[in-house]
Amino acid sequence: HCIDYLRQVLMCHGDLTPITLTWSDEMDWVKPNFSIQHTCRNFQSIWDFALSRNLSGISIE
Fold first, then answer.
1. Hey, which bits of 1-61 come out as E strands?
2. Angle of helix 43-52 relative to helix 2-12, nearest 10 degrees?
3. How far apart are CA 43 and CA 10, in angstroms?
4. Which candidate, 54, 11, 16, 12, places its Cα nearest to that of 38?
């Protein structure tokens, strides 16, 4: 049940938008910039992209 739920979340909310880091003078360190606009993707496109770059030799289907 739990694994299936995680699978559904990943498949339905695929987001490849990178989270960039910005310098924080208050923290004197970097912090994530969560104000970036995120775009949901088509999971099949993500899957196809990953499969086309699989160099492990392991069959993933």
1. 21-24, 29-32
2. 90
3. 8
4. 16
C-alpha torsion angle, residues 29, 40, 4, 58 (rounded to 10): -80
- Tracing tokens 């049940």 back to the chain, one arrives at 1
Reported pTM: 0.42
pLDDT given at position 24? 92
Say if residues 48 and 60 touch (Cβ distance below 8 Å). no
Domain layout of the chain by residue ranges: 2-52
What is the pLDDT at residue 26?
Answer: 92
The answer on pLDDT for 57 being more than 80 is no
